[in-house]
Amino acid sequence: MDAINLLKTDHRQVDKLFEQLENGDGNRERLFTELATELTVHAEIEEQLFYPAVKDAEPTRDLVLESYEEHKQMKLVLSDLARADKKTPEWKAGLKVLMEDVQHHVGEEEKELFPKVSKLLSKPQLEELGTRMEALKVQQLAAVGR
Prior knowledge:
5 helices
């Protein structure tokens, strides 16, 4: 799978988890743990492999730098939500803010960054990068027992 399709697949999975959490489908603790894992591993493969592959190119530099900062914010909010009582309205409000931040980030990636990356990297380069990202993702998920 090429790098961009791998990341888009992750984005859809995270959307689904946010929807389940908002609708109260299932166990909030379990769903949040799954969401936190997905977001953390996704950020890790972007930061270790995807962003470095395109961060030095003029068309993508600013978007990548902004993405690193958005990841920092996301990790802070995830950490706060992980420690908070998930039964409170405050927790649900924090989740809503996280969801909006992640949706904004995903929108920028899919509408701005990915089209630029598609012009910078060839199909074989995107495939090779996707293969490495997939391997790192499997390794990261195994490290957290998934």
